[in-house]
Amino acid sequence: MIQGFIFDMDGTMVDNMMVHHRAWQRKLAALGLPLSLEEVRQSIHGINEEIIERLFGERFTPAERRQIAWEKEAEYREIFLPELRLIEGLDAFLKQAAALGTPMGIGTAAPSENVQFVLEHLQLQPYFQSVVDAKQVRKGKPDPEVFLQVAAQLGLAPERCLVFEDSPTGAEAARRAGMRAVILTTTHSAVEFAHFGHILRLAADYTALRPEEFLDGKA
Questions:
Q1: Same-domain status, 141 and 183
Q2: Is the pLDDT of residue 94 over 70?
Q3: Are 147 and 173 contacting, i.e. CB atoms less than 8 angstroms apart?
Q4: 40 shares a domain with 140
Q5: Distance CA 93, CA 211 (A)
Q6: Which of 180, 144, 132 is closest to 160 using CA atoms?
Q7: How far apart are CA 15 and CA 199, in angstroms?
């Protein structure tokens, strides 16, 4: 039976992936790599420094990659602040889950500055007993490290955790962690998840989701 929930953040709690994509598109173009938004969508996943190394090889030093990543995220926060809000239905879902005493955590590839940006502006800290971000893991998704860390901090076995995700990379990380998943189709289409067998539900938002249906094992 599922006992706890683990949420990815970008695209899963806040519908911000297109904002990230626009910020990446601007930064990559400035670095001499012009990409369409669709090319950005297909190639940008994981921890920022890993993305830069994957796209540019050894062109930049580790310190330069960190600086590029910081500049990109600062631009993202500036673009996103006026439209920052939870995905529809998530506020009620979190309140219901908390009322049931459900342990909850966040496992995200976002840097800590972005995580705090969301948690503080939307006043979400009371809901989550564990928050693991990009700076706390050695490997990004699809490696399961981030979800396994959250489960350990919640005191739950991996198979007792349900992951909420929006990307095939995140879904694969949940599968490798031995966790089932619910997918928000905010960023990727349902067909991109057809090959996964551990997904309980696909949903456009949280309005039709109730915590007790998963905790009762009825999904």
A1: yes
A2: yes
A3: yes
A4: no
A5: 7
A6: 180
A7: 20
